[in-house]
Amino acid sequence: MAKQDPIKSPTARGLAPLALQYSSSIEYDTALYPFDIAASIAHARMLGRQNIISSDDAKKIERGLTEIEKEIESGEFAWREEFEDIHLNIEVRLREKIGSAGGRLHTARSRNDQVATGMRLFVLSVCGALTEQLTALQDALLGVAESNIDVVMPGYTHLQRGQPVLLAHHLLAYFEMFERDAHRIHGTFERTSELPLGAGALAGVPYPIDRESVAEELGFDRISANSIDAVSDRDFIIDLHTSAAVLMMHISRLAEEIVLWSSEEFGFIRLPEEFATGSSIMPQKRNPDIAELARGRTGRVYGNLMATLTMMKALPLSYNRDLQEDKRPLFDTVSNLMSTLEVLTAMLPALEFDAARMEAAASEGYALATDLADSLVRKGLPFRDAHQAVADLVLYAQSQQKALGDLALDEYRRFSPLFDKDALSIDVHSSIAARDVPGGTAPVRVAEALKLARERLKGDA
Amino acid sequence: MAKQDPIKSPTARGLAPLALQYSSSIEYDTALYPFDIAASIAHARMLGRQNIISSDDAKKIERGLTEIEKEIESGEFAWREEFEDIHLNIEVRLREKIGSAGGRLHTARSRNDQVATGMRLFVLSVCGALTEQLTALQDALLGVAESNIDVVMPGYTHLQRGQPVLLAHHLLAYFEMFERDAHRIHGTFERTSELPLGAGALAGVPYPIDRESVAEELGFDRISANSIDAVSDRDFIIDLHTSAAVLMMHISRLAEEIVLWSSEEFGFIRLPEEFATGSSIMPQKRNPDIAELARGRTGRVYGNLMATLTMMKALPLSYNRDLQEDKRPLFDTVSNLMSTLEVLTAMLPALEFDAARMEAAASEGYALATDLADSLVRKGLPFRDAHQAVADLVLYAQSQQKALGDLALDEYRRFSPLFDKDALSIDVHSSIAARDVPGGTAPVRVAEALKLARERLKGDA
Amino acid sequence: MAKQDPIKSPTARGLAPLALQYSSSIEYDTALYPFDIAASIAHARMLGRQNIISSDDAKKIERGLTEIEKEIESGEFAWREEFEDIHLNIEVRLREKIGSAGGRLHTARSRNDQVATGMRLFVLSVCGALTEQLTALQDALLGVAESNIDVVMPGYTHLQRGQPVLLAHHLLAYFEMFERDAHRIHGTFERTSELPLGAGALAGVPYPIDRESVAEELGFDRISANSIDAVSDRDFIIDLHTSAAVLMMHISRLAEEIVLWSSEEFGFIRLPEEFATGSSIMPQKRNPDIAELARGRTGRVYGNLMATLTMMKALPLSYNRDLQEDKRPLFDTVSNLMSTLEVLTAMLPALEFDAARMEAAASEGYALATDLADSLVRKGLPFRDAHQAVADLVLYAQSQQKALGDLALDEYRRFSPLFDKDALSIDVHSSIAARDVPGGTAPVRVAEALKLARERLKGDA
Amino acid sequence: MAKQDPIKSPTARGLAPLALQYSSSIEYDTALYPFDIAASIAHARMLGRQNIISSDDAKKIERGLTEIEKEIESGEFAWREEFEDIHLNIEVRLREKIGSAGGRLHTARSRNDQVATGMRLFVLSVCGALTEQLTALQDALLGVAESNIDVVMPGYTHLQRGQPVLLAHHLLAYFEMFERDAHRIHGTFERTSELPLGAGALAGVPYPIDRESVAEELGFDRISANSIDAVSDRDFIIDLHTSAAVLMMHISRLAEEIVLWSSEEFGFIRLPEEFATGSSIMPQKRNPDIAELARGRTGRVYGNLMATLTMMKALPLSYNRDLQEDKRPLFDTVSNLMSTLEVLTAMLPALEFDAARMEAAASEGYALATDLADSLVRKGLPFRDAHQAVADLVLYAQSQQKALGDLALDEYRRFSPLFDKDALSIDVHSSIAARDVPGGTAPVRVAEALKLARERLKGDA
Fold first, then answer.
1. How confident is the model at residue B288 (pLDDT cuts 50, 70, 90)?
2. In chain C, which residues touch B (CB < 8 A)?
3. Which residues of D touch C174 (CB under 8 A)?
4. Positive or negative CA dihedral for D413, D415, D421, D425?
């Protein structure tokens, strides 16, 4: 249609080009279009239903916005820098398309509640996508645990070998972390699911609007209770950042272990070629770049949290333009996190474990000393005395350059008369089997835990 | 009793004094004593019930620990640096008091699950105390709103006066923030309420323990599902830090407003002498030090969050000594937050508002322009056209150096024929009353919101 | 030329598409091209000079790279995603253009020292640009101070009016902050100006290279002293982040004051239309969006510092792929900072100060009480006693609802016999003039300070 | 002397107990006493010299303060909570001791410039102590390198073995990092060394003071140029935090390597008993707790930086009470850093390296492949072609399950006719020796680097 009279930004019209560029967000906020359009359509329908605008105008607006959405999706929409953000770009285009009816869309709302609504819809959508991808990662993790159900490895404290455990048990520790992450994301979702539209600039609007029906149409759980809070609040974005930061922290621990385990020194895993870089000259090399990058990106996710907390510090109510700076850190964290979850979900099932080497590592040294001590305790020796007896035994074995398994029973008995044949039968498998408590590494417990985890995933999915 | 044989730290005995000092936490972890003792008593009772130790030993342990708790409370307990933390100090004292039975307390547990249990009990206790203090702050806030129910003030955007609002409405925005904070603390509580005891060093323990009964006795909602996760996890501490960071951010906004409002330029509040510092020479001065300090302490609460996230980054499983560094940032944040909540709760009711000055500020200038535009929209003019008409009107008034209320009707009508006598009756009170939507600032809505807030508080309390 | 045989990434050839995408930096690292090319040319020339490659090959390489630089500048260069970063894209193109000689460019270097060299050249270039822009901002600041040399305003502590000062004196406080920023950036420059090339992958290279000549050609002050450090180190990037964080902190303080001063309550400045947004309906409005955005972006600059510190935490030597994550936070901070400096440099000279209102604010109340006390001290009264006398006087004046200037001499003398006619002549101008010490606000001192600042700027420029 | 009239805090007298407690810093700021007293003595002397107070009063003040310092050092000084900070405690005690002369000390200064002066003296003192301790750590590092000059180890990238290096070369990488840290601390010192005293509350003072002489007496390089900046600025504290954060980051990398190297998998070092904790039951265990704690404390040092940056964000000029929150994070970082440097300085010389195991690790696998390729390049093959030939060779060797050293010459020549006997003589020692470039790992270069490092240390000391 004809561009009869040039439309200008109502707020930015006099800005120097440098200032317009500095304050414009159109370079990065276009990702919000589906949310902005959905919210505008719901708003227009409500205005029509409430007779605040004519039902005819409401229909025109809805049709116009639907067409604009298609223009954006097809790539033919021309974003214009002079209209500083996505919201104004869409509104201007609407007025070009449908004329004065377009000028009625902004009745009973302001940029402040409009922007807050778009951001909340975005975060709700992200919570859904993250939960889904996290479930896929948990599913992959369980698959690895199930396929390697018999693999034994050393459990570590201080990066020193402690007690033998099942690899599946170790992996289930990450399953638990991700469960908590899902719980945290769910809390974020709950707090986000609140419609700000209707708050106007800050005080509410002087029109007989029906906020509940808009909330329902857009899928919000409830409407915001206070108009000033509605336009001032960005807690929901910080909530997403904190959920993301803890999740990335968990991933950084898993990534660290993948790096360690793929070193020549550990040799626990061989990385699949599809997820390792080589060296131009040492083609056998399998560098754990993906894990390193995931670990490194933890920094950015932490940084984005700090950026947003800092931005919010000591802002007086209600809306301040500082709030525009909520977007880039959020988009960066979301894309970082989603891509990291995806690539790990693809990589985990392709890891090859060297079960023999892992079990050997679990058997070496004096890792079974606690089992020996526990056997004495079960025969009545106080815990601290049993520990002392075994400590002396270990020092003796070490002086003889023998493993505990190489000692004869009478050598054992020099340190406690309570030792008997049972002592000789202690090995990694008996040690693991003995930890038969809820949450313990005994095979029967791990099998139960895997089953339960599968059930939890189904419930989540 | 006689100190027959010197007991040494089982793990730190050979440490150089410098290294012992560097690794000791006894200087700051004694605050954990009630939690450590409660957990040990519950553990000993269970060991007795399960016949892992004799019921006689279990009773001796319980009696000994109860006495030790009294010694600590009365200040006669002598903390010893050579026993590097509170847990060992208590255990050593127990062995001094009850002899070999004391050596059985550590059966079927390790320092790793013991420490995790103590920290979780501490955080659960903190969640309770914070929630209570937050409720008290909300109660104070509601009191201020109720006592000043008729006070009108300018609502601000960009720290520019926007639309008039009720002070009570403005304060209710903070009530909403604190509601979300309570929700966040509750989520922290839920994720914390999981008993790690029984995880042993990392793999579970080889004794027929009954974890569920210990959980029940200590008030945990459930037992941890994976022993490796149980000793590696500090999410619950980060959760508390994130809850605290967002809460302090809210407080920093309130503090900023108190600073602004008590400036000579705003002049909205006069600080009570009990909560302001003066100047040695200008005794009439009322510096808002408390608000400034609260605002400044936001930094420390953010910093402690970042400290803990950094500490956890890329740690391989399971327990690493780095985790000891979870304590000081946590204690610092808790004491910062509790004292800040307390002092604000006491200060808020003592603020004196200058209602006349606040209403005057809300009336000056062209703050009612949007109300004029809305009156045209309601008469059928498209939103954007109405805005244009009023914008021209404002420019005209400004050129005449008149307020809008000083213009005659025919001056109005030069800019739109739709203006009628209604335009002349617009004032701050009609403007406020017009925002009669859920969440809006109309007195009837604010009264409802206050009532609802009172009900919510009662439900929370 | 013909693309005879398809060249593949030597390190990433087997990567799954998802993994390639995850690890690729080509999307954002192309900004490094001038630095990468300059370093490669210097390297090739040196290889030629040292007869490590033929001088003919060296010339071919130089010519090829020069052409590639033009292709990039003209926009005809086709970046290819399958070559994961800018370095490989350029090398591949070189081999397409000049054949096997291109395969000799990478002699005696590795991606590790190449990347470190490019990043250092980038940071050196940024230090230069920042210093220049900072000088421009300081110049603008001095201009404002000089044009408003007679403007008096209240100096604030606790956002309460303290003593009167010259606006120029207040602005010079920012000049000093920016001087320190320049010093910090200079320290960053010094530590960055160290050539890593020659470190190879990590251990040095087995060729008779001449590192000093490469350093000289590229403008580095010296060569790195240790090859492992050379490829592991990113301190220079953190140095830039810390310089940026402190500079943005300063800017956030200035921005805060612009926001305060342009509020109706302060009314000290009127923002130029070119640097303020209006309201669609209140065209007289001048929202301080630029200052708010600058204040808000402080968060991102802090966050990027934290991101990079976190990334580096606990990385073992030498190169780890995590280091690739140094780029995006750096680029984000640089563009944030440069644009902020630019927009402020343009905005400051356009601020309109309301001198009358500022002086009135400085005169109101009891701001001159300290001057009265100092007059008593100069007559021999101990400081603390003088303060007490004036404090009593102020309370008396307040009870009479009078300003100090409205009191008669005998009223003064009720509080101290030392008061004489001098007391009646104290006003903002005498108060300001009395602070005639180095660094004080007396006009003569401020004039000197302005002159000195101009000289310092010339020295810096 | 008699406590004739009770002295009250001039600013905090009316505070509610809760508010006094909240705003008091006396609990933690007493460490500043030597700096506060030194500054007060220098101030009093100058006041006497300038005849602002009588020389008799000046002498009384100096004598009184000297006595107070002794009271504090001997522990007999009674800190009183009702005087909220160290500065007032000392001033009150002075007035008790010397009467009205004590009331003249505060002439021509205010708490604002006094506090800033004390903090700067503290930071200058910390810079000195840190530099000294850092030199001691570097000395220890060089000692370890020198004592293990022949030890060979794998150089790592991606935690994969890359090329063999000397352990001494690896350790020298840390020497370089610490050199940069010293440079950063020096920059902090330079920017800190500026006397704020004379700025008064904010505007300068109306007395003929001689600031230069006070600066000289206290050892400052210069006086501050602007009184408002002087009381508003805390850059010097942030500078210390950033220096500390980068230094702790370096330490976290060293700590990570100590943890890795002392794992059973690496087995490169055995920790001295004095710096390792054991297990009650596995007395042979050597847990790297000191390294883990150092790594973990990195978090707190980062967090304190973030705390202080956050505190300063967007504070208007000049002094605000928020600034009091500069102290605790600073003290925490300083004690963290000093103790970490001390314990590492003591621990490093006691590490036992397993040279045989390290060299074996450097020899295994295909770590010498790049040396082979470089030998081909030196015979004229383009770099990329040489890499391809060796890559094929490595794959062949791997398929034969042979090390490169196990292949016969004709097997080599299948992949390039340029291979000759030289290929067979490549081993870790020839590889290391070949990297004979400045900064490279060749023994002759490392020996030079050690010598140079020793000289640099002497220059620094």
1. very high
2. 157-161, 259-260, 262-266, 280-289, 292, 306, 309-310, 313-314, 361, 364-366, 369-370, 373, 384, 387, 390-391, 394-395, 398
3. 229
4. negative
Q: Which helix (H) or strand (E) holds B163?
A: strand B160-166
Q: Which helix (H) or strand (E) holds A119?
A: helix A111-147
On average, the pLDDT of chain B sits at: 93
Burial label, A273 (beta-carbon count in 10 A; 0-12, 13-18, 19+): middle
Among B332, B259, B333, which residue's Cα sits nearest to residue B289? B259
d(CA A187, CA A193): 10
Mark yes or no for CB contact C259/B284 under 8 Å: no
Mean pLDDT of chain D: 93
pLDDT tens track for B6-40 = 556 666 668 888 999 999 898 888 999 999 999 99
CB neighbourhood size of B210 (10 A): 16
pLDDT of residue A119: 97
Q: Which of C114-123, C295-304, D371-380 has the lowest mean pLDDT?
A: D371-380
Supply the Cα-derived Rg of chain A in whole angstroms: 31
Give the residue among D118, C100, B242, C332 at the shortest CA–CA distance from A249: B242
Which is nearest to D163 in space by CA: C119, C195, A279?
A: A279
SS (H, E, C) B186-209: HHHHHHHCEECCCCCCCCCCCCCC
Residue identified by tokens 């953010």 is B302
Show the 3-state SS of B90-155: HHHHHHHHHHHHHHHCCCCCCHHHHHHHHHHHHHHHHHHHHHHHHHHHHHHHHHHHHHCCCCEEEE
CB B321 within 8 A of CB D293: yes
The token duo for C361 is 């604010």
Instruction: Establish whether B158 is a catalytic residue.
Output: yes
Q: Tell which residue, A57, A348, C300, has the closest CA to residue A65.
A: A57
CB-closest option in A162, A183, A378 to B201: A162
CB burial class (10 A; 0-12, 13-18, 19+) of residue C70?
exposed
- Which band of pLDDT confidence, cut at 50, 70 and 90, is reported for residue B164? very high
Buried b (16+ CB within 10 A) or exposed e, D431-458: bbbbbbbbbbbbbebbeebbeebeebbe
Closest residue in C to A301 (Cα–Cα)? C307
Burial category of B415 from C-beta neighbours within 10 Å (exposed 0-12, middle 13-18, buried 19 and up): buried
**Cis amide leading into A318 (omega within 30):** yes
Structure tokens at C327: 């780029």
Give residue C158's region: left, alpha or beta (phi > 0; psi -120 to 50).
left
Kindly calculate the radius of gyration of chain B based on its CA atoms and give it in whole angstroms. Answer: 31
Q: Which helix (H) or strand (E) holds A195?
A: strand A194-195
pLDDT single digits (tens) C29-64 = 899 999 999 999 999 999 999 999 999 999 999 999
What DSSP character marks residue B185? H
CA angle C81, C84, C85 (to 5 degrees): 110
Contacts of B329 in chain D (CB under 8 A): 299-300, 303
**Is residue A302 within a helix (H) or strand (E), and if so which, with residue range?**
helix A289-312
Model confidence pLDDT, tens digit, residues B49-64? 999 999 999 999 999 9
| Model ipTM value | 0.94
Tell how strand D152-157 and strand D160-166 pair up: antiparallel
Q: pTM for this structure?
A: 0.96
* SS3 per-residue string spanning D187-241: HHHHHHCEECCCCCCCCCCCCCCCHHHHHHHHCCCEECCCHHHHHHCCHHHHHHH
Residue with tokens 């004046």: C397
Q: Which residues on adjacent β-strands are paired with residue C156?
A: C161
Please report where in the chains the tokens 């949290």 appear, as a residue: A305
